[in-house]
Amino acid sequence: MQPNAPGERPLLLKSHQIVNAGDGHYAFTDLRKTSLGDVRTRQFRLFTPIRRQRMRLPTSLPEFAELRHLANLSDSPVTVAAELGGHWTEHNLAAITHVAACNFRCSYCYVDYAHLAGGDRFTATADAVVAEFIALRAATLRAGQRLSLLRVSGGEPLLAPGLVIDIHRVLAERDLLDAVVLKVESNLSALTYAWRQGRADPGPAERASMRRIKLHTTLHHPPDSREWPAIRDGLALALDIGFDVFPAIGATDWSAAQLESLFWELTRISPGLVRRLAVRPFHLDYPALADRRRLPRPTESEAPSVTWEGILRRHVGVGYLARPRHLVPLS
Ligand code: SF4
């Protein structure tokens, strides 16, 4: 059976139906009905990607490299600055919208389970999403802040690859690609199924333009898991479609053997991926959520990025995050 066959994955089929509302409409969570921070409208909340107090830092930059095994890598403002010009500190603000369903139910997810299953949803077109973003951008500018990052999160945005492509197309039509970068967060496991259900293959010009879409993917399951084939195939397809891919794992529960296996799996897809991988140095089931969901408290262990750095040095002769990730080419 194919890993993404709907009969095997009822959550995939259900969540795909929820998000793809039909007739160019997609389902989003009404953020006013969540406990997420800095909600501005039902469509968007604001977020500061790099925050020293929260240890979210661009540790692939030389000035933060010493913290790469302690801090959580957060580098979208760096990639935005590389696209649009200026320093990353000028791009340290994102507007986030959340699609209304996900095909996974990770115990550590910071989104309430109801909001992974279409609870409190409304529908909107890509045009409406961009119009809301433009209005929010104008409001933040009046308040003295630049808003240059539009982030589509979830839920699982690549249940609806057409949504992402349409938002990018609308940004282009509004002449905003010189001022705004589109970032998507995905688990990638739904992409092959959703892509088959959706649009025709993009032509060369559309693929080239999609290289500007930053696709940040957390690989939630290791290569020896049942979920891995769908994740691996989604990763390969994402590169083939043309997304600019930035993978990550939150790996305190990954064994050294699983990390070694991941190295070879990623290398087979694209050698650049292993040098772009963010190995989160924290337990994904961090204490606040562990308490909320009554999970066992994590035990201390060596940062998995230290193990990953050893693997990288052994096989490719470079250290972990030796270069800013957007400078590592993907083939
Ligand atoms: S894949 Fe992401 S959005 Fe979906 S349940 Fe897991 S953490 Fe939450």
From TrEMBL:
It holds the Pfam family Radical_SAM. Residues 87-321 form the Radical SAM core domain. Coiled coil: none annotated. Keywords: Iron, Iron-sulfur, Metal-binding, S-adenosyl-L-methionine. InterPro entries: Aldolase_TIM (IPR013785), rSAM (IPR007197), rSAM_sf (IPR058240). Gene3D superfamilies: Aldolase class I. This is Radical SAM core domain-containing protein. It comes from Micromonospora echinospora (Micromonospora purpurea).
